[in-house]
Specification:
By secondary structure, this protein is an alpha/beta fold. It has helices at 3-38, 49-58, 67-91, 140-154, 169-184, 200-212, 216-230, 233-246, 263-275, 277-282, 296-319, 327-344, 350-379, 385-396, 401-426, 441-448, 451-466, 471-477, 491-497, 503-513, 542-556, 570-585, and strands spanning 96-105, 110-119, 125-134, 160-165, 196-198, 532-533. The longest helix has 36 residues, at 3-38.
Length: 586
Amino acid sequence: MSHAQVVEATSQENMEFDNEVEQRESQFAGICASMILAHDLPFNFLELEVMRKYTEFLNPNAVIPPTNVIEAYVSHLYTKEKLKLKQELASIPNRISLTFDLWESNTTETYICLTAHFVDANWKLNSKVLNFRLVYPPIAAEISERMIELLNDWGIEKKIFSLTLDDSFENNVMLEQLKNQLCLRNGLLCDGEFFHAHCFACVLKLIAEEGLKLVSGAVYGIRDSIMFVRNSKNRRTKFKECIEKVGGVDSSVCLHLDMSMSLNSTYVMLESALKYRHVFESFHLYDDNYQLCPLAHEWKRVEKICAFLLPFYETANMINDTTHPTSNLCFLQVWKVQCVLVDSLGDEDKVIKRMAERMMSEFDKYWDEYSVVLALGAVLDPRMKFSTLAYCYSKLDPSTCEQKLQLVKRKLYMLFDKYSSKSTSSGLKRTTQDQSSTMPLQKKLKSLSHGLFNELKVHQRQLVTETRKSQLDVYLDESNLDFHCYEDMDVLQWWKRNNNRFPDLSILACDLLSVPIATVASDSEFCMGSRVFNKYEDRTLPTNVETRICTRSWLYNFVSDDREGDRDDLDGIMNEIDNGEKMVQA
């Protein structure tokens, strides 16, 4: 081999090596960007000194991608995933429900958070953040104008079913302006009658907080007792001795402290403390400084408060469920809340009674307006329909039951007329395209062998036409599914299986069942009750904030594998005591 050939071969090898290195570095940059998005880390995470040392320890030759490369990669992902989501929203025949909220950064900039809730092609309920966009000034006219721009950008301005948002004067003004703009574009059904939905998660929180003000003494007593025990190792040791002496206490149960702005944790704290009631009542015999134990009537009141808060707790858990619960389940949960409120109005404890009265006055402000939307979703659950509504309404107030049923029925038929007329005029249905023209001969012959069944299907359709029954009539006339057999049924999957029987009604079901009752995405950076985020540094550009939040929503749906932090686990505390004693003995 000549010298020139050797040089050429060496040059080719170097080029191949450089290409391989460049490809590996590109893959590494992609992995780093995905890690930063999935775990919501800062863009410069890999440039931190500790991470640099860790990377060099694993591979001294590793090239850490700079921050601007990571940002560029995330921006590329954002553009690609936005196009995919845009195409998906355009392809589905059903409408889209929105949630809207305002968020403020630690630099007091105001952002619009717009989230879409819809049933996808696989009949699964999805929640995707569409925009997290800076708005200035944050006034109703500017916000509504910006919202129209965003909806036009996504191409969904004529596919909106409802908008869920918090109750405030500014939001109400913005809602009316946005509603008028969409109606002018023929983008809403029934002149926007079903457009507005309350954020019932916030309503429940306000209701519960209003009531708990009257029973704060009992709650404080429990909280102070738990803090007294946990704030000293010596007290924890004595508390363990007391548990053993009292006996019959399951010490594996966690003893919790509540957290601010979390009603769930208040319920969990009270419920766990009740399991240690006899231990707390005897603890003064082991520690003379303990004078905080609630009295007998206060313990009884705590029991009632727990029973009172249980449906609120279950509803909050359902709202925060990452599977995005359908509205039929929301109706039953809210009905349970109302039942507890009504029952507590006659409680012998005057404090509990006053608490129920105060909470009921708050409940009534919102329920009459919002109950119809949830009731419509319940009717389109084949296990419930109008018979379940009749039971729920009659249990609360038999005198108004029939009136409420007729209202819901009138609204449902009014909505269905819009869907059936649209289907007739446009031919748009949520069905798969006929593939008989491309079907192989063997499959065609197999299909022809079922001609008798096809004939019977045509006969059934003719019977429906002759009796002038609509899809909605046929659905309502059929017997309810048995709750015992279908307790864990996925309602959307039932509509998928029955789509051919109810092509128009199934689209309406998708829209009603996907109406959300909370404005905040579960497991997001934001916690319920707070509209301030300080996750990102002041110098982060607003476009980068939207890119991060939206791309993370589209790729990972805000699901995190983080473990629950800083739990007040009594069993863990006791293990700590045992380990300490063993070390002393050794």
